Amino acid sequence: MNGILARGATLAALGMIAAAPTFTPAVAKDTMGTPSGTITLTAQSADVGVGYSWGEGVLRYDHHSYKFKVSGADIAALGYSKVVSHGTVYNLKHLHDFDGTYGALAGEATLDKGLGGAVLSNTNGVRLKMDSAAKGARLAAGAQGLTFTLEN
C-alpha cells in the first residue's frame, strides 16, 4: 500500500514540473524541438533543508556514447533517494552544447518507490525530457539546478 501511495504522491508532486530557465511546459514532442539523442542517468540526493544531488550517466549522440557527471542542488528538500532516469535529448547540434547547467521547477515525494518525469533545459537550447524511477524517502519542492559535464 505504501508503494502505491508513494507513486501517487510522486506523480502528483512531479505534475507541476516545467523547464527552466525558459520555463517550457512538458507537452507534445514537436514543441520540444528536434530529437538528437538519448540519455541514461543514475543519481543520488541527500538533503537536510538545501539538497545536494550527484551522479553519472551516458549520452548517446551521433552514433557514439559519452559518459558524463552530474551534480546540483535543490532549494528545499529533506531525505535521501536514488533515481534512475531515461530520456530523450532535443536540439543538441554540437556535443559541447550538452555541458552546462540545466534548470527545472520540480517536486518529489518518494516513500520507498516512486515514478516521475522532468523537462530540463540549458542556455544552449538543449532540452532533456526524462522519465524516472526513485527509491528512498525524500520530500523536495522548488527550483533545482543540475550541472552536466562530459568526461574526457
TrEMBL record:
Keyword terms of this UniProt record: Signal
What span is annotated as the signal peptide, if there is one?
1-28
Protein name, entry field: DUF1134 domain-containing protein
Organism the protein comes from: Acidomonas methanolica NBRC 104435
